[in-house]
Amino acid sequence: MTFEKKDSRKQSAHYKNKNKPVAHSNNQKDNQTEFKKDRKFSGKKDFSRNSDNKRTAFKPRNSDKFKFREESRLADTQAHTEHVKRKGFSEFQLRLVTSILEDVLVMHNSLDRAYAFWFNKVKIDPVEQGFLIKQINFMFSRLSLFAFVSNLKRPSDFERHVGRLTFAYCAYKDWPLPELEGEEGFDRRGLKKRIAEAKDDPLYNDGCPLWLQELGYSELKSKWDEERKALGGESHRFIRTNTIKGTRDELAHKLSDEGVVTKSVGGVPLALEVTSNSALFRTKAFKEGLFEQQDAGSQLIGQFVDAKSGERVIDACAGSGGKTLQLAASMEGKGVIIAMDTEAWKLEDLKKRAKRAGAFNIEPRLIDSTKVIKRMVESADKVLIDAPCSGTGVIRRMPDSKWRDGREHLKELRDVQADILERYSKMAKVGGYVIYSTCSIMPSENEKQIEKFLENNQGKFELVEDKHIMPSSGFDGFYMAKLKRIG
């Protein structure tokens, strides 16, 4: 099977893959779009399938109601863990988990969209929701391990054996095993032995597919092992303070009053790490535009740009505007930010987010032809090019995405990166700056691109500085380089 690709720009368009998580989970890439109650999910009403490959609805039952479900009244994640350890997943939880797994494994939808749909359709407490998301994320982060445990040849075989994934996961956790319907031929003997064997295999244990191992080692050599392990770990949840409307301490206090537990993040002055399973986008603080969800590493890119009041700044691959909003706050509403993208719907989303954030110095501009770029040559003090990339730095936030071989499009991505950098850099004034960034940790997409660009533009640009943020830091992986236009 082939997992659904993340939204990506076509080669003829020149933009960044900005598929953003939309669920209230630990999954986030650059920023996050809040739930929309009427959101369509692949244009379909029901998303799980039966054995005849027909869609079936998640039908509510009387026992699903809050007052009938013992697990729905548990206070925290630890309580949920202890409950499942003793009694196993409830029948309700198994149906919900299976529906989400089938959306991804059978329907080939992304995990983020499956979360968005099902947790909008099936309302449960944020603590229980966070607990289930954590379990499902781990299933996908170790899909090859659970395929081995389930006596399947490859992770894609789960398309025909969805039930085995939950079964193998419960066996791995030493929790009570669920019923396994329609799997009479599944050999359960040697289950513990296979689990032990898988844990001893570094690739299985770190949740690393072979293609990623080969790519990572070829690019990073001895540094890869540490980063591979980090990418197999659990992601953290970060938000960025909107300084247009308040300080980080003020935000932390307001969130605390709403039951959201946070802590400050060293080295990232506007960041808070959310340590509780809270429905952030239901909070009054979010509705008032006091914060945006954004990885701490991504926030360092905005800081690196160093946009100042009164400047003319171009965010050339703005998407829905995560970094655009950060730059607007840095400029204190003075000057102008031109947010550009080829996707009109992303710019429409940016307008809504900007209004909520109180960022009124942003001018969205759709790129519908090459003339749009040509008209802006030598017009900006700073140009941010958040280029399309393999996304290897953020894989742990999209654990379902890594089971599709990403090497097939890597050469195409490198060509697009080089083209974007060559053409969009011309929008910077002489004396201005171009900031090139990716959410990849692979040198061929990062410093190698900068080296090639400088070689092709001798006497026109010079490298001021560049930085790597690696997943082993605890943040997502990013690269950023600042170039000064000198001719």
UniProtKB/TrEMBL annotation:
GO biological process: RNA methylation
Database matches in CDD domains: AdoMet_MTases
Gene3D superfamilies reported for this sequence: Vaccinia Virus protein VP39
Comp. bias (Basic residues): 11-21
Keywords carried by this UniProt record: Methyltransferase, RNA-binding, S-adenosyl-L-methionine, Transferase
Residue ranges of the region described as Disordered: 1-62
InterPro entries per UniProt: MeTrfase_RsmB-F_NOP2_cat, MeTrfase_RsmB-F_NOP2_dom, RCMT, SAM-dependent_MTases_sf
Catalytic site: C439 (nucleophile)
Cross-referenced PROSITE patterns: SAM_MT_RSMB_NOP
GO molecular function: RNA binding; RNA methyltransferase activity
Keyword check for Transferase: yes
SUPFAM superfamilies membership: S-adenosyl-L-methionine-dependent methyltransferases
Domain of life: Bacteria
Binding site for S-adenosyl-L-methionine: D341, D368, D386
Protein name, UniProt field: 16S rRNA (Cytosine967-C5)-methyltransferase
Native source organism of the sequence: Succinivibrio dextrinosolvens DSM 3072
